[in-house]
Amino acid sequence: MSYYEEIRELIQHVPATIIDWAIERKRGKPPTQAFSEFLTNREQGDWAENLILQAINALSTKFVAVQYGKSENIIAGEPGFEEFYEQYQDELETIGKRPDILLFSKDVYSEAWGYNISNFSKEQLDEIVPLAKAGIEVRSSAFLVEEYAQFMEQRKAELTERVLQLKVNLLDNYQDILSQKTGWIESLNAITTETIGVLEIKDAPGWRGSEELKAASDIIKEMNSALKELKKRDFLSITPKVEDLKVVFKWIETYDVPHYYFQVFFDKVYGISFHKILELISTPELEGNKYFIGDEDSKNQNKWTVKIDYKEGQKVAFKVDMPDHNSVTRKLGRGRLLFHVRFNGGTAYLDVNNLRSTLGINENEF
Fold first, then answer.
1. How many whole angstroms separate alpha carbon 270 and alpha carbon 312?
2. CB 266 within 8 A of CB 254
3. Are 76 and 32 in contact (CB under 8 A)?
4. In this predicted model, what pLDDT tens digit does every residue of 48-97 receive, in sequence order?
5. Rounded to whole angstroms, what are the CA distances from 206 to 219, 221, 232, 304?
6. CB of 131 within 8 A of CB of 255?
7. What is the dihedral of CA 168, 173, 174, 176, to 10 degrees?
8. pLDDT-flagged residues of the chain (< 70)
9. 93-116 in b/e burial notation, b at 16+ Cβ within 10 A?
10. Taking the model in full, what pTM does it have?
11. Given this structure, which CATH class describes domain 3-143+236-359?
């Protein structure tokens, strides 16, 4: 069974409530103007892509990473943008969404092609792309993984301690009146450090029958608020959009090349296969634990975002040196100026074993 056939089989198990493959992708409309935040995000994405390209090419003796994703620097509001945008939409409908990077064995890759094939003709790419070992979509995130994890761990500990304190307060000072309310003593006794992340406490119904009942009701409300905070997503994520998963599948259908997502943080890089993403979202009991569905537009399923715990991937770079950055000005028509950040330098230190494992490369191949 080919890789494409495996993916085609797997998508049959993804609930239609998450991805309905029958819903056609809506053709995008070109934006009318660019904004500084967009330019900074794009610069960060370009930096992250270059970081991975350089890291692989500096380390591997048997593989070469080349730029494949669209690299034009044109933006909304500049001459030619609408034509470029429409051509991009045509390509999404024809071959799907290109990954940013293609990885080739040096045995099949011609040095004459160079390190950037993004502007090759479709006829050339139709010959070259199927030779690739992998396609890598690079995503960037403006977080430090370690500091975020430390913050969330401290937050969890503080919320847990607060809930347990409130439980003790209720049982020590309000047990007599709570025992008159069905199920409340049992519910409080069920709160432990083991159950606190999943337990649901029913809302106190705004008791006002006495000062004691009102005080107990207010404490329960505070406890519920803390419990809800504990259940919120507490992990950084790899965040493909449903509409992107569809056009990634279209690209796989076109070229039959394995596809991966690399999430670049400013201190580490994590990688996950498209195959595993589909496996995760095909398992409903994992929702709310290993992944969430971000309802960005409740009226348009294609705009939903799948937020996958980055730890479901593998740490393909154990360290990233921070880049330098500087402010850049871009002048548009009518004298409009945009100011954004440009990133330069930085190094990703690859974990070769995890990288090989993620990409399915044997030990003696890389």
1. 9
2. no
3. yes
4. 999 999 999 999 999 999 999 987 788 787 788 888 888 888 899 999 99
5. 11, 9, 24, 36
6. no
7. 110
8. 204, 295-303
9. eebbbbbbbbbbbeeebeeeeeee
10. 0.89
11. alpha beta
